[in-house]
Design a protein that fits this description.
Length: 197
């Protein structure tokens, strides 16, 4: 049995509608501590991609590192590079919708365009292989009216589809860690964060 000193401070309500300002102050304190550990959880999850080849020439982590390295070496900003690093992080839990999973993770920390690229890169990446699977390689054309169409096409052409080279010398994950921590230090937008925080 845990001692009184080990018991964490907790809210006392059984239903949210019974909550008090004191309860929510307690929850808010814990929330901010939990939120500050987000980069650690993201890095842990990203490492799950290591060694998972899925038939590709490089493992999923190496593909992510190559994509981010190519974007970084091309002079892209930190938010873009972090988006490139995390664009396939949804592979493990979002087998049928990995772009949307990754996009949900990065949404608070990137620009609207970077979020859109991440969310839609699956359809754009399909241009390079859908026809081999009996699918429409021009699936991306449904987004032709988007102001972000060209940016997503460019991301896939320059960084994503090109990042399967076993001989490419990408930067290690440790290289991107400080960048990821800076980007995730404070959201650009979130309904859970006020201007004063």
């Amino acid at each position: 049995m845990a001692s009184t000193a080990e018991v964490k401070e907790q809210a006392t309500f059984r239903e949210m509608k019974e909550g008090t300002a004191e309860d929510w102050a307690t929850i808010s304190k814990h929330y901010m501590e939990f939120a500050s550990d987000l980069p650690d959880r993201v890095l842990t999850h990203l490492n799950l991609l290591k060694g998972d080849f899925g038939g590709f020439p490089v493992c999923r982590l190496e593909h992510s590192l190559q994509t981010a390295t190519r974007a970084h070496r091309d002079g892209r900003g930190e938010r873009y590079v972090v988006m490139a690093l995390l664009h396939d992080i949804g592979d493990t839990l979002g087998t049928y919708n990995h772009p949307e999973v990754a996009a949900a993770i990065i949404k608070p920390f990137v620009t609207e365009e970077e979020h859109w690229i991440c969310e839609h890169h699956g359809a754009f990446q399909g241009y390079y292989f859908f026809h081999f699977l009996g699918m429409d390689r021009d699936t991306r054309d449904q987004f032709a009216g988007s102001p972000h169409f060209e940016a997503c096409r460019e991301f896939c052409e320059k960084y994503d589809q090109a990042a399967f080279d076993p001989d490419y010398k990408s930067e290690p994950l440790e290289f991107f860690e400080p960048m990821l921590r800076r980007v995730m230090a404070k959201p650009l937008s979130s309904m859970y964060v006020t201007e004063t925080e």
